[in-house]
Design goal:
Structural class: mainly alpha
Strand order of the largest sheet: 1-2-3
Number of helices: 4
Number of domains: 1
Shape: globular
Order of helices and strands: HHHHEEE
CATH architecture: Orthogonal Bundle
Radius of gyration: 13 Å
Strand content: 5-15%
Largest sheet: 3 strands, antiparallel
CATH topology: Arc Repressor Mutant, subunit A
Number of strands: 3
CATH superfamily: Winged helix-like DNA-binding domain superfamily/Winged helix DNA-binding domain
CATH class: Mainly Alpha
Helix content: 40-55%
């Protein structure tokens, strides 16, 4: 079991949104939650992944599959095979698309 397998669906969602460079305020808007709730999700995700900062969290996400996190089996977000690929770097689930960010090895976040 990898550390990311311990994350809840909301913690995964928050981690992906941090990786996509959203602020706590922006994430709260997406989740329809308070900023304090976002901070709580971040704190528990940090503890489970062994990271200390948003940057470390973003690097962890980038280094472990990035946008494909929402398609991982067992995270409660999508059943196996539910994601449909539409070209390089774009994954569609329902009507939303998520573009993959450059990997940490590419020098950009």
């Amino acid at each position: 079991m990898q550390p990311r397998d311990r994350l809840t669906a909301k913690e995964i969602q928050v981690a992906i949104l941090v990786w996509q460079r959203l602020t706590n305020e922006d994430i709260a808007g997406v989740l329809l939650a308070s900023e304090q709730m976002v901070k709580n999700y971040l704190r528990t995700a940090f503890d489970k992944l062994g990271v200390w900062t948003r940057l470390e969290l973003a690097l962890y996400v980038a280094g472990h599959g990035g946008a494909n996190w929402h398609m991982q089996v067992g995270n409660g977000l999508l059943p196996p095979g539910a994601g449909v690929e539409h070209g390089p770097g774009t994954s569609f689930s329902g009507s939303a698309a998520i573009k993959e960010k450059p990997s940490a090895s590419g020098g950009q976040l």
